[in-house]
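Support case: fe (ii) ion complex. Customer-provided input:
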Amino acid sequence: MHHSFVYVLLLSLSVFFNIVLVRKLILLGFEKKRLASILLRFKDLSSRFRDVVIQREEVFLKTVLSLSKNFIDDVKNAYLVYFQGEKGKVISLEEHSTGEEVFVRKEEFSYIPERVHVISGQDSIKVLSKLQPNVVHQLGSIETSDGWSKYLAVSDIQVGGELKAKLFLARERSFDQEEIELLKSLSSLITSFVATHNYVSAQGRFQKDMILTMIRILEYHDKYTKGHSKNVATIASLLAERLGLSDEMIKKAYWASLLHDIGKIVIPSQILNKEGKLTIEEFEVIKKHPAYGHDFLTTSEDLKELAKYVLHHHERWDGKGYPMGLSGEDIPLISRIIAVADAYDAMRSDRPYRKGLPIDVIRNEIDEHSGMQFDPEIAKLFVKMIDSGEIRN
Ligand SMILES: [Fe+2]
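Agent response - structure generated as follows:
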């Protein structure tokens, strides 16, 4: 999905931070070559943040953490505490942890006015045992061993005056002034990306609520679609997953399926809810729903791509579908997936003139129309999923 203005915002943020950084480094008397290499690191970092800022929270925070860990040399462990109100979730890159989630409270950490500071010795062990209680038995040996993670650089990420996250980098040796300066810039960069991520996910929530409201209105208007959109979405995203599509595409398959019949909102309900056979004229009216749906969705920049999938959900592999008569791979993949899921759910649900069909009948219908109505690869996968019992009525 496009968040063009967010990208512009991020681009200007990273330009701004690069300028701030250059001035800071010049003041520190860095030589040119070294300056160039540090700038390059920041440029790389900000473009990688840009890529993950629209990802879901967990992926975003883990990426921030791992990029931060690699930003300073020889860092052994890195932790990010992400606060929601007074409670903070500890995010760690450790693989050997038990997988149990660790939570801390804001008040457990003493307030220090500097944005980045270093703690060492007993104090660092105290903090580490809060962040990773399940390996606390190992921490006992830290005191005696010579210096494992004795130094912790702590950086506060504040958004709008509120402490949003704390970044901890653990290392055997201390951090020098130059590294602290670098960490301050890193912390500013993370701050702006955390703020942007919060904003983007709030937008996402709003959009999701809007879509669900639209679906509810449709179901009110067309009683046959009750639950249909959701069933199609579940099956379509399952198919997308089994086809090996990316998380992003699976998500799109889900949302496009939820919306696939949204254009029916403007089809008269006497036609939609008619119990007898439709006349040719009435059917011509119903056939307009993919184009109407497409029209509604293209008003939003973010939903444009979904609009395309909605437009083509009644195309057929052999080119005999509507509205454009596209065939084969000219039909977008997600539309081909929706076509199979849609047919399945239509056959399995009750209609006034017939009961829902049993699963083996549906299986044979999909199989028979493979290569004609349906993409043969998707139809084959679908039949396989029925045969294995993964899809059942
Ligand atoms: Fe439809």
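The chain has two domains: 4-200, 222-387.

Case will auto-close in a few days if no follow-up is received.
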